Amino acid sequence: MASSFFSHVTNLHKRLIVLIIILLVAGGIGYGVFRFVELSQEVARLKSSPQAAAEAAKTEVKKLVEQVGKLIAVPTDETPTVATVSDSEKLKVNPFFQNAQNGDKVLIFTGAKKAIIYRPADNKIIEVGPLSIGTPSASAAQPMKFVLYNGTSITGFTKTYEATLKELVKSAIITDRDNAAKRDYSKSLIVDLTGANSVSVAELAKTLGMEVRTLPAGEAKPTGADFLIILGEDKK
Questions:
Q1: C-alpha 229: how far from its chain's center?
Q2: Which of 42, 46, 63, 235 has the highest Cβ tally under 10 A?
Q3: Residue 155 has pLDDT above 70, yes or no
Q4: Domain residues of the chain, as ranges?
């Protein structure tokens, strides 16, 4: 979960998407709902290294959890996925989001099966709901298109990883492979290219053991795919 840190206010937009574990908040939060909850990283404006950005993001999430923990008991043995409500009107079709406003934070604790809506502006809890673990829906089986960038100096790395990706994500389709602009990525990352998927980029990243990021500066944005994976040294 450490790779999932987000903020709609910044230029880095993500969508909550469920791949293997479908999170259903009591009251019926479905796939369509999370299409209107934009995930983002609080380190949007950082121009530092991936490691520094990740550490900064962890710090921001830690501060948020500590603040929420002063108002309500929160799990202490896991880091939540944090989302920011970006279109509260569309979310109101679900009871859980009836009182939500743009800018509210949604903390999702998968292990504890708990979701919390927190309003930073007022420093108060808006809603709390349980999560249940369900089986993947038909949408989770839809083809998912990936572009692979080699962010290392290892020759043929994307071709080698393609087999691993298809093993972990059965519906994966590789549309292109290329070298990244930078060849010194220490950690692999995944970028949601469209923000219009109905499976969780957070859960996908967890399955692949990667960080969720926006497109790094200097990297070309590929077209015709759902996700971009930039391979780092950690996957060799």
A1: 13
A2: 42
A3: yes
A4: 14-134, 138-235
How far is Cα 104 from Cα 93, in angstroms, rounded to an integer?
Answer: 17
Q: Which of 168, 208, 200, 213 is nearest to 3 (CA)?
A: 213
CB 7 within 8 A of CB 83: no
| Per-residue pLDDT reduced to its tens digit, 24-60 | 444 444 433 443 444 444 434 444 555 666 677 788 8
**Residues across the chain:** 236
Q: Give the residue from 69, 68, 88 showing the smallest Cα distance to 8.
A: 88
Helices 157-168, 201-208: crossing angle, 10 deg rounding: 110
Give me the percent of the chain exceeding a pLDDT of 70. 69
The alpha helices in 22-156, defined as continuous H runs, are: 31-34, 50-69, 88-91
Tell me which fold the domain 138-235 belongs to. Alpha-Beta Plaits (3.30.70)
